[in-house]
Hints:
alpha/beta, Rossmann fold, 4-stranded parallel β-sheet, two-stranded parallel ribbon, 6 strands, about 10% strand, SGNH_plant_lipase-like, hydrolase activity, acting on ester bonds
Amino acid sequence: MKQNSRFLILFLSSINVFFKITGAAPASLPSSAIFPALIVFGDSYADTGNNNYLNTIAKCNFPPYGINFEGGIPTGRFGDGEVFPDLIGSLLSEGLGIKRTIPASLDPTLTSKDLLTGVSFASGGSGFNPWISQSRSALSMEGQLKKLEEYIEKLKKIGGEETTDDIISKSLFLVVSGSNDVPSAAAGNLQYDVESYTSSVIKFASDFMKKLYRYGARRILVVGVPPFGCLPSQRTLGGGLQRDCDQDYNNASKLFNSKLSSMLDSLSPTLQDTKLVYFDYYNSLLELIQSPQRYGFEVVDRGCCGTGLIETLLLCNRYTSSICPNISAYLFWDAYHPSERANRILISKLLEKSVPMLL
Ligand SMILES: *[C@@H]1O[C@H](CO)[C@@H](O)[C@H](O)[C@H]1NC(C)=O
Ligand SMILES: *[C@@H]1O[C@H](CO)[C@@H](O)[C@H](O)[C@H]1NC(C)=O
């Protein structure tokens, strides 16, 4: 407990340092990392390049993706720069063992050292529902767990069984999924209604959490889905002439999130010594959309890539799409994914709230 509160103070002050003096060298903080590694599952919001190695069209390893990433390199991250895992990793790395950017687990060049501080198994296009992942040739959540199993075996070879158990039990597990499940339900193109479909997805999500627990995870942070109706592409498709937020889609997102959060609340006490913490991405992102001036955004209803009305993935490419003159003024990078700057603002709030609950 004492160690935890000392960590918290260090952690909260490192958040301040990070946001006030960007680019400053990290202070030398204790090496006894509270989270030795960050281990990530989910969809395009968390994929750091796995889909580059899969036979899927859900890819973005071409310009202008990655224009704000170190050196302007398209790495397969679904955005202009760093994504959730990197942003969390860089905040935690200020005082802890985790490295700045979180590598993709399918990258064949990963070293043992890379493995020790964590990886992302996430795959763009995947969903909690295995059928969704399959329909997009993405690595399913079950497939991602298989990769975790291989990862644990590799850790054991490097550091032995006891060290591995210790790393796994103390690591931060990040789960960012649902973003491909929910729109399918909202579009009404499935045989179920939104109410029963969201419940069936939650059942998959709950099974996933229990499996993570069986692999040894004890600190699990779960990010809810964004307000889909306010994503630029959905404003175009369902928002009418004014391109308003599509309330059907927003309602489906809210319904899914409320079921996800109550599932986590009821599951958490049944898993010994385990913290399952939910992050409300919906309302955090909505706040940026509704009060853009407060955060220095000028455009919230179009993406920066192309016309911003619909372009994402293959449609956002250097041959057909010019990009907006000032990305910093845009909340969304493409018509589906928030910009690095927007997510960075949200991540700082997320960690400030969630880390104390995970300890
Ligand atoms: C969204 O949900 C609200 C509150 O549950 C409801 O009043 C409204 O009619 C719903 N809107 C749509 C378009 O389904
Ligand atoms: C870009 O947008 C940001 C945020 O609105 C603003 O602070 C900055 O001055 C803009 N830069 C240019 C060159 O217009």
